[in-house]
């Protein structure tokens, strides 16, 4: 039986989408039960314009929810100069702690012109993060080489961030570690066929790992296939602990410190209250 953490050792959820309509029926009830389930802090991540607006509303409603705003590569049709300016303005809000999720996704979009457009807005949003002094949450799927090339090209090592839902090789992980990036680990780590990802987790330092669900998607075993929520982070923490042969408490404690360091406004926010 997995033990629920209390106090300082509560879980830091670094990537959730509670704005998603899959939570419409029970959002309030679910979010109100987070503390008693050991979840201390949540970053809700915007993926398009409406999701970013809803993210800001959630940060206003719940003291333990912080927000990332940005436009996902599959939703860049939402982006224009006016929306970019809106992101720029809203990034100054005290509880907006990151720009994301931004990046490249060639899984659905294979046309060269769309890919070029994705790269353009990825660059612009990275520059936005640099300008406003916020970390980035990066989404990269089927675009390993282009993501790394683009980030190296604009000196992304000067912009702190996390590669969320990491799905590439150990060699690729090492390139991101070199740039100072964190690696986001979620439900996929519990899947039996996730050999490559288990190897990545075994070899990279715990000090560079963040816990995430990407809920409502990607539920870990034994909840695979069902709607995901931050309550399932215990399964992910336990899997990382087993791989690294350390305690689940240590995983929770260190990944919390990592997240607080990266999203430093989550700490400063508390000092201000
Ligand atoms: Ni996501």
Outline the structure in words.
The chain has 273 residues and is α/β, with parallel strands linked by helices. The chain is globular. It has helices at 27-32, 49-61, 81-90, 112-132, 144-153, 170-178, 195-203, 233-244, 248-262, 265-272, and strands spanning 11-16, 39-45, 65-69, 96-105, 136-141, 161-163, 182-185, 209-211. Helix content is 41%, strand content 16%. The chain contains ten helices and eight strands. The termini are far apart. Helix 8 (233-244) packs across helix 9. The model has no long low-confidence stretch (mean pLDDT 95). Strand 3, helix 3 and strand 4 form a beta-alpha-beta unit. It has an eight-stranded parallel β-sheet with strand order 1-2-3-4-5-6-7-8. The structure holds nickel (II) ion. Residues 15, 17, 45, 101, 214 line the site of nickel (II) ion.
């Amino acid at each position: 039986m997995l033990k629920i953490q209390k106090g300082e050792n509560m879980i830091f959820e670094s990537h959730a989408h509670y704005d998603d309509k899959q939570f419409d029926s029970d959002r309030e009830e679910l979010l109100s039960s987070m503390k008693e389930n050991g979840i201390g802090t949540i970053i809700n991540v915007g993926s398009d314009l409406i999701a970013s607006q809803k993210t800001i509303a959630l940060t206003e409603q719940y003291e333990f929810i912080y927000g990332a705003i940005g436009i996902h590569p599959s939703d860049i049709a939402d982006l224009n100069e006016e929306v970019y300016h809106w992101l720029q303005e809203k990034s100054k809000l005290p509880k907006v702690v990151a720009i994301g999720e931004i990046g490249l996704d060639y899984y659905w979009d294979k046309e060269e012109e769309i890919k070029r457009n994705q790269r353009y807005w990825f660059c612009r949003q990275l520059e936005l993060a640099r300008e406003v002094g916020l970390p980035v949450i990066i989404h990269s799927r089927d675009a390993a080489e282009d993501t790394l090339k683009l980030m190296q090209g604009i000196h992304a090592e000067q912009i702190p961030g996390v590669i969320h839902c990491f799905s590439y090789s150990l060699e690729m992980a090492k390139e991101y570690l070199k740039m100072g990036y964190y690696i986001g680990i979620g439900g996929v780590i519990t899947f039996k066929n996730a050999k490559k990802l288990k190897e990545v987790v075994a070899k990279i330092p715990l000090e560079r790992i963040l816990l995430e669900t990407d809920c409502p998607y990607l539920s870990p075993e034994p909840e695979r296939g069902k709607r995901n929520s931050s309550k399932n982070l215990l399964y992910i923490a336990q899997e990382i602990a087993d791989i690294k042969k350390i305690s689940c408490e240590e995983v929770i404690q260190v990944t919390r410190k990592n997240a607080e360091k990266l999203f430093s406004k989550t700490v400063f926010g508390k000092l201000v209250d």
